[in-house]
Specification:
Layout: E1 17-21, E2 24-30, E3 39-45, E4 54-56, E5 61-67, E6 70-74, E7 97-99, E8 104-107, E9 113-116, E10 123-129, H1 135-148, H2 155-164, E11 167-169
Antiparallel strand pairs: 1-2, 2-3, 3-10, 4-11, 5-8, 5-10, 6-7, 6-9
Helix pairs in contact: 1-2
Length: 181
């Protein structure tokens, strides 16, 4: 007998739930309470947006670049002190990756990771997260903070939000360029 994994999911190209605010623009495809692997998104990353290096105490994440370019990082750096993760390297000297369409990143629990859009055009990615509390809830709350503060949220408010979802921010988040409606 096979375990019940929940109802199958098929979503049209314009379906799902939009989560927006400031530089956050995500289309939720599967919520964390579905008995699937994780919250699943198609995410647009605004020009200049940098999520900052961070880690999650539990849960895994996967990223797949669909369009545009994203700088991506997923490793324990040899030295965490540089304030810009673009300067980090792993113990063998490997730096971040310039992710083009088709680039993939898997992040185990507790591993520092980051992504940024270094270009003047939006980039899109497929993103899954099994982080506690559902990443769609984190994005909704972060989007509200970014929207209400015109892209410059109070760092203490962001730190409290991250702690609620088991996230430790290692380098600064930068809101970047034009936001989505």
């Amino acid at each position: 007998m096979t375990a019940n994994t929940g109802d199958p999911v098929m979503i049209a190209h314009d379906g799902g739930r939009l989560i927006t605010g400031g530089a956050v623009h995500a289309r939720l495809l599967v919520a964390h309470d579905h008995p699937s692997y994780a919250s699943t998104f198609e995410m647009t990353v605004a020009p200049g947006f940098d999520v900052g290096a961070h880690l999650h105490t539990d849960g895994e994440e996967m990223f797949f670049v669909l369009t545009g370019e994203l700088d991506v990082l997923c490793f324990e750096p040899a030295d965490r002190t540089p304030p810009d993760w673009h300067a980090w390297t792993d113990r063998s000297g490997r730096p971040f990756l310039r992710g083009l369409p088709g680039s993939f990143m898997y992040v185990p629990p507790g591993v520092p990771h980051a992504f940024a859009n270094p270009t003047d055009r939006p980039a899109t990615m497929f993103f899954q997260s099994s982080v506690t509390g559902g990443h769609e809830n984190y994005f909704t709350e972060l989007g509200a903070l970014l929207r209400d503060s015109h892209g410059r949220p109070d760092p203490a408010a962001v730190t409290m939000l991250e702690a609620q979802y088991g996230t430790e921010q290692l380098t600064a988040m930068r809101p970047g360029g034009p936001s989505h409606p």
